[in-house]
Design brief:
The complex is a heterodimer of chains A (501) and B (149). With 501 residues, chain A is an all-alpha fold. Chain A is built from 22 helices and two strands. Chain A has a two-stranded antiparallel ribbon. In chain A, a hairpin with a 6-residue loop joins strand 1 and strand 2. The relative contact order of chain A is 0.18. Chain B has two domains: 65 residues; 66 residues, no CATH class. In chain B, helix 5 runs antiparallel to helix 6. By secondary structure, chain B is mainly alpha-helical. The longest helix of chain B is centred in the first third of the chain and has 26 residues. The chains are: A mainly alpha (501), B mainly alpha (149). At the A-B interface, helix 8, strand 2, helix 9, helix 19 and helix 20 of A face helix 1, helix 2, helix 3, helix 4 and helix 5 of B.
């Protein structure tokens, strides 16, 4: 409790409030841009955090992240183009609402839903983070290796229908992470005698390359087509009593759902919002209204995806394991700043952790103000042609890369990974497994080898503890998840056929 | 279209083969298990190779199906946009340290804006270029203490 209050005081320092508002605002803007989501927002804004003290940097990145979650639904509602996966569900009913002249209501209810989801999840964070951190202290190298394996395989198998591509992306990421001097033996691997490669490929460059440059390249595919898209007029930014009556329970019950999904490795905002949407549709007395502007169909996923974004930070901070693309990007940036998230963070630096937790409350309050009061300004920014904004994202990516190593050699690397990211997107590869693998790859290999050294080379160590066995079972189950979904869908189709016949 | 469809799995096969072959030329370690640094890369590149071959067969099966992304890549000026960005990026890399942050950023961003946004909107392009370059320079070097050339 003392740490909580202390953290609250730190957050209220003017500098920290300033960074929360700036982060929330910038995150909202990048999240709003069609085709760009929170991972891109955090990636291009990483350089802003350099030179800051680590606590402020963490607060800022958090604000950018959930700011982008708020912003993502703006473009879903107004333009029918979601910024990223977790904003897709907002197009189902948000855009129809806008078409019916209810854009203002849609924007307001989605903001309020995001706010409530974020706040409820932050409360959940307080109760779950510390127990999880102390549980994670029991993990040895074998358990860590298996946990990373589970996270990677979960993120691959949850990208349904892309399993082969997902595992290829994962292998590529892990192989890239082996480039450079081996931390255990000092042996050079795949450095091709290029001195620049001996320190390995900086993972933030890969991240900025695929998430910023690659995403902009991908958006070039439609840049000359999108400009004609008609945008809906926004009149009044508030919702009716009827809207609130219909949405309040969906908002409240989907926050815990999103939160839990967010905590699970591999899942995240996209899955949370889809689950919430279908749950509400099934619970609704008027399921036929879903897809035609049902306000609860917008509110539920918005609450849930924001809660998921808060939940996703729990494994990141307590175990040092990111469960999604965006948290992977955050981990990369934190390591750059010299912060090593993990169970020890709670022991060594409780001040930082509690300040961050408190910042989520303040951040969500700041964001509801930004998104309701400044909605006119935000919509004007959405009017700014993409043709101006994409070059700015590109230049930000370049500047960010330079600030990482002060070397222009990395610009070539940035372009290379931009092109790789583009082709991965074109060929429908999931990006998150690549990014996650590059970041956890080094640790994963070291833990694997440390476990084997401790056991004198016996693989038995991976089956030694109850935690390990549980992790293995869940990993294997996660691999069968797509198969299960396929069977369920087939069964559903057969039943429908049976009924119609 | 087909070239891209087959090119991707072939590229993945080549990448995994390159990693696999060069894994064997990793020097043996003097510390601990001499083959320690090899296991992970070899295991991964074999796994990736197998998956890439499966992927190749999957693509061959659906070779005649249309992929709207690939189609879009060859439409209009998309390839040119990407190409110009890359060329400008390379130029940026070459002039960044000699000409300094401000001038090279003005050239890069200005060039990109004029090409992407069109010459007709020269006014917007110029304002954005100069305003952004100056704000970025001021923000990074003065406010955040990042040293820029």
């Amino acid at each position: 409790m003392e740490a909580f209050v202390e953290g609250f005081h730190t957050v209220l320092q003017p500098a920290n409030i300033f960074w929360i508002v700036i982060g929330g605002f910038l995150g909202t803007i990048v999240g709003m841009l069609p085709g760009l989501g929170p991972a891109t927002a955090v990636a291009v804004l990483i350089p802003v955090t350099f030179g800051m003290n680590p606590t402020s940097a963490l607060i800022l990145m958090g604000a950018i992240y959930y700011g982008a979650m708020y912003g993502g639904s703006r473009s879903s509602i107004l333009l029918n183009t979601p910024g990223d996966g977790s904003a897709i569900a907002a197009t189902f009913d948000g855009y129809p609402m806008a078409q019916q002249g209810r854009a203002g209501e849609a924007l307001a209810i989605s903001t309020v839903a995001s706010f409530i989801g974020g706040i409820l999840a932050a409360i959940g964070f307080i109760f779950l983070a510390e127990p999880l951190a102390s549980f994670a202290l029991k993990f040895g190298p074998a358990e860590y290796f298996l946990l990373m394996l589970l996270t990677l395989s979960a993120i691959v198998s949850l990208s349904i229908g892309k399993m082969v591509k997902g595992f290829i992306a994962m292998c590529l990421g892990l192989l890239i992470s082996t480039i450079g001097i081996d931390a255990q033996t000092g042996v050079h691997r795949f450095t091709m005698d290029i001195p620049h490669l001996s320190e390995g490929i900086e993972f933030l460059i890969v991240i900025i390359g695929v998430y910023a440059v690659g995403e902009v390249f991908y958006n070039f595919l439609t840049i000359d087509k999108d400009s004609m898209k008609e945008k809906k007029k926004v009149s009044r930014i508030w919702f009716t009593k009827e809207d609130w009556k219909r949405s309040k329970w969906p908002i409240i019950r989907n926050a815990p759902l999103g939160f839990i999904v967010g905590v699970l490795p591999g899942a995240g905002g996209s899955i949370a919002s889809m689950m919430s949407y279908s749950t509400e549709k099934q619970l609704s007395k008027k399921p036929e209204e879903f897809g035609n502007g049902a306000v609860e169909g917008l509110a539920a996923p918005e609450s849930s995806n924001n809660a998921a974004s808060v939940g996703a930070m729990i494994p990141l901070l307590t175990m040092g394991i990111p469960g999604s693309g965006t948290t992977a990007v955050m981990l990369g940036a934190l390591i750059m700043l010299g912060i090593r998230p993990g169970p020890m963070l709670f022991e060594n630096d409780p001040g930082m952790v509690w300040t961050f937790i408190n910042s989520m409350f303040i951040g969500n309050i700041a964001l509801i103000i930004i998104n309701i009061l400044l909605v006119g300004l935000l919509i004007k920014i959405l009017d700014t042609p993409a043709k101006v904004l994409y070059p700015i994202i590109i230049i930000l990516a370049f500047i960010g890369t330079y600030t990482l190593s002060y070397s222009t050699v990395d610009y070539f690397m940035l372009l290379l990974f931009g092109v790789i990211g583009l082709f991965m997107k074109i060929m429908d590869f999931p990006i998150a497994p690549l990014v996650l693998a590059i970041i956890v790859g080094g640790d994963m290999e070291q833990n694997f080898r440390m476990a084997l050294t401790a056991s004198n080379g016996s693989f038995g160590i991976f089956f030694d503890s109850a935690i390990s066995i549980t992790l293995i079972i869940v990993t294997v189950l996660s691999l069968f998840y797509p198969l299960l979904i396929k069977l369920l869908r087939k069964k559903q189709k057969d039943e429908e056929k049976g009924i119609s016949a | 279209m087909k070239a891209v469809k087959i090119g991707m799995p072939v590229a993945m096969i080549l990448i995994s083969l390159t990693f696999l072959i060069s894994s064997f030329s990793i020097p043996r370690a003097n510390l601990g298990n001499p083959n320690g640094p090899l296991y992970f890369p070899i295991g991964l590149s074999v796994f990736m190779l197998v998956l890439s071959v499966i992927y190749l067969f999957n693509e061959l099966k659906t070779l005649n199906e249309e992929n709207k992304n690939i189609k879009a890549l060859f439409e209009g000026r998309v390839l040119k946009l990407i190409g110009v960005t890359i060329v400008l990026g390379v130029i940026y890399a070459l002039i960044f340290e000699t000409l300094g942050f401000l001038i090279s950023t003005v050239i890069f961003l200005g060039g990109l804006l004029f090409y992407v946004n069109g010459v007709k909107k020269w006014m917007v392009n110029l304002i954005v270029t100069f305003a952004f370059s100056f704000i970025a320079w001021y923000g990074f070097s003065e406010l955040l203490g990042v040293s820029l050339p």
